[in-house]
Amino acid sequence: MGFSVGIVGKPSSGKTSFTNAACMTDFKVGSYPFTTIDANVGVTHVRTPCACRDFNVQDNPKNSLCVDGVRLVPIKLIDVAGLVPGAHEGRGKGNQFLDDLRQADVLIHIVDASGSLDSEGQEVAVGSHNPSDDVKFLEDELVEWMLGIVKKDWRRMTGRIRSEGAKLEELLLEKLSGLNITRAHILKALRASELKSEAADKWTDDETREFVKMLQKVAKPIIIAANKIDRPGAEENFKRLQDEFSDYLIVPVTALAEKILKDLDKRGVIKYIPGNDDFEIVQQDNLSKEEITQLEKLKEHILRKYGGTGVQNILNKAVFDFLHMITIYPVHDAHSLTDSDGNVLPDVYLIPEGTTAKEFAGYIHSDLMDSFVHGVDARTKMRISDKHILKDRDVIRIVSAKGQK
After folding, report:
1. pTM for this structure?
2. Binning pLDDT at 50, 70 and 90, where does residue 198 land?
3. Which residue range is the domain that position 391 belongs to?
4. Could you give the CA distance from residue 310 to residue 250 in angstroms, rounded to a whole number?
5. In this structure, what CATH number is given to the domain that contains residue 338?
6. What is the pLDDT of residues 358-373, one digit of tens each?
7. Is residue 376 one of the residues assigned to a domain?
8. CATH code of the domain containing 154
């Protein structure tokens, strides 16, 4: 799990409820601001078709789960303290929030779609607050936070470009590497903002802000979870968010429904695979008639209507659509698809698109990358070179000078 998904939003919007539903944790939930003081860190899963179906084998997962041909791959989730306007100036838990945010690669913004919380996270009449305001303020806070870091010692930094011939992207990387921002992020933001790095000392304040806005979108992309979609007025606000923020991905979510379904599945009352738009009641005697009726309503009005509770959907989009990850299965034997202990397709790794076979060896162990000889594609049984670019659900054997995987 070399990357993290950050769960952000104003106090009481449902961040911790989302995290508990996703990770099956019991972090403290409350209806008052700043219930979360320190960041809650949990492990959840993204789902993907398992390679076991491609080969028609029974697998023995070790670092993940496989349920009916669906591989559930663990990822790290960070639920940070609630954010209020002025956080970049230290309001609320702002400084802590932003410090926790440094390690997140993609952000899921939990928005109370019912409009029942003001900007500070205090309860108000349902529908009296416009969730669009929450989207605007979060983006503004992130930009102001990053802008403050970029502009610090700006004149001295741009002076080094003239006096030393330093490159702007290298200087920015020095400043921003602690935010998990890479050179690729910086170069992409420079291209998107159409600003000349060699003229950085002449950038106006508006131009600098435009660059930082682009950098935020590239390095800390935001997906919006329209949470509490089951509450009155939420569907109308969801449509309003879609109309007003057409450049955002907005997913309808009910964290409460996801938690209920997972709890019942854990108890063996129902069979539910996270992300499905259906479930099977397997112990009807353990449910009252009222509970069965409520479950049927949940199925009809939430799962069928929205294609699920939205929790798994938005996690998958964060990892596969925004971080562009793929799944790769390393094996010791390309014919039996086993590790050295005989386990079939035991491990799966999430790695970035474009990763080569040799680079992937480094994800398993640095020694494997250093002593890489070649790989073997389990589908074709053909050798693959160090520069071979891997594809999603590839199953490969790594052959190294020091040993084999």
Report:
1. 0.88
2. confident
3. 325-400
4. 10
5. 3.10.20.30
6. 999 999 998 899 999 9
7. yes
8. 1.10.8.470
